[in-house]
């Protein structure tokens, strides 16, 4: 689930919607007929692999290829909708582990928005002990007091119980609460130098692991819009909202076991995102 769950908000919440999921099937790993892909799936997979190989080959042409497109002055690739800037994403991370020190330009605003989207829809935001630190790091100082009160009210004890967490935001023993967001792309819709409006298209995995979970881990697609302000030498969030999608057609992936999801969350770390 996403922060708003089919709902635009200015400080919404994660993981409250009803979900449907395919539970893992049992059976012989080699003889189970459900592992046989359809011809459509096979063509799709082959097509994706071909595209990936072509992309890797193009990227590996390297600096020595004189045919690489540049802007003629700095040697950087021409700007494109999905091209990375080549700049370092941030100068440092705060004590809270949240990226900081973004550049005061459009690329810096996009990088800030992507990283803040990850934090605002994380499992940590549900923890009362962790939330104030996140709010103070991410939001404009003038908004901190109001946001802390709003989020404390939204993430009440009753809400935490509804998603299976205790009053400290912790999952039951043997379970893991998952709330991990992955930005797919960013778009600046307004920029003035000291303010910016950035849309972040996201996907993510949300829910509680455990065979008896009433809120199983599922995926979601949503777009967050963040109003940013340059203050105290960095981009900070002034306000944000969220809407569902754009969402693709679900693939034919075999659903993993709850244990496999828990293990993946523990073993695979997140990223610092940059435009």
What does this structure look like?
- This protein has a domain at 1-15 and 84-247: Roll (Nuclear Transport Factor 2, Chain: A).
- Residues 2-83 have low confidence and may be disordered.
- It is globular.
- The strands form two sheets. It has a four-stranded antiparallel sheet with strand order 3-4-5-6, covered by helices on one side.
- The protein is built from six helices and six strands, in the order αββααααββββα.
- The protein has 275 residues and is of the alpha+beta class.
- 27% of the residues lie in helices and 21% in strands.
End-to-end C-alpha gap: 25 Å
The arrangement of helices and strands along the chain is HEEHHHHEEEEH
Which architecture of the domain at 1-15 and 84-247 does the CATH hierarchy give at level 2?
A: Roll
What's the total number of strands? 6
Overall CATH class of the domain at 1-15 and 84-247: Alpha Beta
- pLDDT below 50 for ≥5 consecutive residues: which ranges? 2-83
Write down the CATH topology of the domain at 1-15 and 84-247: Nuclear Transport Factor 2, Chain: A
Strand content: 15-25%
How much helical structure, as a percent, in the residues? 25-40%
Structural class comes to alpha+beta
Pfam families: DUF8175 (PF26526)
Organism: Streptomyces paradoxus
Biased composition (Low complexity): 65-75
Transmembrane segments: 42-59
């Amino acid at each position: 689930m996403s922060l708003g769950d089919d709902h635009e908000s200015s400080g919404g919440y994660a993981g409250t919607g009803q979900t449907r999921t395919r539970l893992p099937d049992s059976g012989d790993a080699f003889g189970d007929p459900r592992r046989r892909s359809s011809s459509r799936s096979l063509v799709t997979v082959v097509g994706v692999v071909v595209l990936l190989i072509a992309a890797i080959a193009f990227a590996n042409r390297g600096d020595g290829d004189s045919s690489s497109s540049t802007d003629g002055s700095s040697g950087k690739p021409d700007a494109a909708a999905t091209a990375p800037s080549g700049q370092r994403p941030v100068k440092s991370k705060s004590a809270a582990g949240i990226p900081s020190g973004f550049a005061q330009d459009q690329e810096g605003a996009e990088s800030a928005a992507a990283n803040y989207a990850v934090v605002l829809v994380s499992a940590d935001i549900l923890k009362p002990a962790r939330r104030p630190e996140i709010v103070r790091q991410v939001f404009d100082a003038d908004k901190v007091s109001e946001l802390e009160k709003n989020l404390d009210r939204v993430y009440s004890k009753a809400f935490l119980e509804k998603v299976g967490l205790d009053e400290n935001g912790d999952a039951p023993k043997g379970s893991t609460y998952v709330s991990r967001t992955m930005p797919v792309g960013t778009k600046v819709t307004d920029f003035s130098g000291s303010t910016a409006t950035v849309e972040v298209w996201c996907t993510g995995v949300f829910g509680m692991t455990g065979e008896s979970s009433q809120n199983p881990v599922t995926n979601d697609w949503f777009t967050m819009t963040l109003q940013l302000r340059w203050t105290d030498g960095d981009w900070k969030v002034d306000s944000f909202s969220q809407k569902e999608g754009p969402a693709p057609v679900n693939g034919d992936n075999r659903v993993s076991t709850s244990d496999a999801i828990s293990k993946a969350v523990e073993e695979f770390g997140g990223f610092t995102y940059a435009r």
